[in-house]
Specification:
Blueprint (H helix, E strand, L loop, with lengths): L14 E6 L10 H9 L2 E4 L5 H4 L6 E4 L11 H12 L4 E6 L9 H10 L3 E5 L4 H9 L12 E5 L17 E5 L5 H10 L7 E6 L7 E6 H4 L10 E5 L10
Parallel strand pairs: 1-4, 1-5, 2-3, 2-4, 6-7
Antiparallel strand pairs: 7-10, 8-9, 8-10
């Protein structure tokens, strides 16, 4: 018997899937995402994941690691640590994120933690909220002769970032987590010379049963949005102007 035979073996880690849940409606998650979710042993999910989506994994242990703008939430470093710990406790671990995990989902920090721990992972994309919103309002984000480019941005910052994020220069702008920051965005765009009558569509709870659409102008948004309880996506640009046939 060799001297190494008495040494405890290193625990074998399971596999982690980062899955995009889509904008909220359970039937907008991808087929692949739903399949892996149904086979998961444990699911670490964000605060905005709907009960209908969590119903797709009744066999799994559910761990809320809610991150919601403007509210108390689990620190990202703790989420990273919990993800690694779960990989050594379970064979199939799912990190379930709203929308797409690779867009404003802090995926880079979680992937780095998994890579540093030598844990195998896979990413399953989801329908990002902007695309679901465009479908909901039946207006494309691009339009021939009007809008040839689109920019996604957020004003939400980390503790080490400057408070003011540069606004994109683009035909159509889509602001994620835009509820509280919408007024400031409007003021800055107006100061940069954007016309006050530029069309704006703000949508609360995209794709859900309680979805609410608000049509306004950039000048009106400078006065603030109506009170909203759910997540708000703000779309700005001429492509959002109401069509004559609508």
């Amino acid at each position: 018997m060799s001297e190494d035979s008495d040494q405890p073996s290193k625990p074998q880690a399971g596999k982690v899937w980062l899955i995009g849940a889509g904008p909220g409606a359970a039937d907008l998650i991808t087929v692949r995402g739903a399949k892996v979710l149904h086979e998961a042993d444990v699911v670490l999910h964000d605060a905005l994941i709907t009960p209908d989506i969590l119903a797709l994994c009744p066999q799994a242990t559910l761990i809320s690691v809610g991150k919601r703008s403007g509210q108390r939430s689990t620190a990202q470093t703790i989420i990273n640590q919990k993800l690694v710990e779960c990989a050594y406790q379970y064979a199939r671990v799912v990190r379930l994120k709203g929308g797409d995990p690779m867009l404003f989902g802090r995926a880079d920090e979680e992937l780095t933690a998994l890579e540093n721990a030598g844990i195998d992972y896979e990413i399953i994309p989801g329908v990002t909220t902007a695309f679901a919103a465009a479908a909901a309002i039946k207006q494309p984000l691009t339009k021939r002769g009007v809008a040839r480019n689109v920019a996604f941005f957020t004003s939400t910052t980390g503790k080490d970032e400057t408070e003011e994020v540069a606004l994109p220069s683009c035909d159509t702008m889509v602001q994620y987590m835009g509820g509280q920051a919408a007024m400031d965005t409007a003021h800055r765009l107006l100061a940069n010379g954007n016309p006050a009558d530029t069309p704006v569509i703000a949508i609360e709870n995209v794709s859900r049963d309680n979805q609410r659409m608000m049509r306004l102008t950039l000048g009106e948004m400078a006065l603030g949005l109506p009170p909203c309880e759910g997540p708000v996506l703000v779309m700005i640009g001429e492509a959002l102007r109401k069509r004559s046939t609508q």
